[in-house]
Amino acid sequence: MSDQQVFRVTLRMQVHPGKGADFERVWHDSADTITGQSANLGQWLSKSLDEEDVYHIVSDWTDEERFREYELSPEHLEHRGRLHPFRSAGTMTTMRVVHHFTGAAARA
């Protein structure tokens, strides 16, 4: 698959103070909801070092259409519902990967 076909979704999640560990556990325990989708290429959870109680979730998809199908599915609604009690705010950004280069450390 070429980089130009990868559809990327990034979520910025603000969690309630003191709920980070619970959020991480629930996200981890239900991650296969996303990665089990046939159009999903992978996902990552990162914790901000600059903002208190902020997480970033990145997921890559084969195309936007199949991501949007998942977004409207009962599986997504259930997954989102499990994370909702921990979230105080959030935003979503979508994009298409234009170029990707593998770094030296990953090639070693």
UniProtKB/TrEMBL annotation:
InterPro entries: ABM_dom (IPR007138), Dimeric_a/b-barrel (IPR011008). The lineage of its organism: Bacteria, Bacillati, Actinomycetota, Actinomycetes, Kitasatosporales. Residues 7-95 form the ABM domain. This is Antibiotic biosynthesis monooxygenase. It comes from the Bacteria. It comes from Streptomyces polychromogenes. Pfam families: ABM. GO terms for molecular function: monooxygenase activity. PROSITE patterns: ABM. Keywords: Monooxygenase, Oxidoreductase.
